Amino acid sequence: MAYDEGLAERIRDALRGRRDVGERKMFGGVAFMLGGHMAVGIVGGTLMARVGPARYADALALPHVRPMDFTGKPMKGYVYVDPPGMEDDSALENWITACSAFVATLPPRRPGAGP
Fold it and tell me: What is the dihedral of CA 66, 72, 77, 81, to 10 degrees?
């Protein structure tokens, strides 16, 4: 599945200057890793946002947000944000900031560990 390369560039721009950023093909799209942890990603034109369990319900209450159910079962702590929910750069940056804050609370990844 192809993903929105324009959205990927917007994410790269927002993360520019960070040394802990990586990209990995997954979920039929691309995931942006921070410190080895998936923070945000893209499937088609939809943003995958890892907001964490504590912010999950609040994120779902926002417009254009729905559970991430890639496997058919919602993944708690992850949401999909449809394009209208990140049309402008400040909205996208808010999502990236929220996801970055969550993954910063996770323990460091071991080298060679999965996402």
Answer: -30
81 neighbors 51 (Cβ within 8 angstroms): no
In terms of phi and psi (left: phi > 0; alpha: psi -120 to 50; beta: otherwise), the region of 72 is left
**Which structure tokens are listed for 52?**
């964490």
Task: Answer whether 92's CB lies under 8 Å from 47's CB.
Answer: yes
Q: What domains are defined for the chain?
A: 5-103 (3.30.1460.30)
Please report where in the chains the tokens 């402008």 appear, as a residue: 88
Spatial distance between the Cα atoms of 81 and 42, rounded to a whole number of angstroms: 10
Give CA angle at 4 (72, 16), nearest 5°.
Answer: 110
pLDDT in tens, 21-80: 999 998 789 999 999 999 999 999 999 999 999 999 999 999 999 999 877 888 899 999
Distance CA 85, CA 62 (A): 8
Alpha-carbon distance of 78 to 99, in angstroms, equals 9
Report d(CA 12, CA 89) in Å as an integer. 12
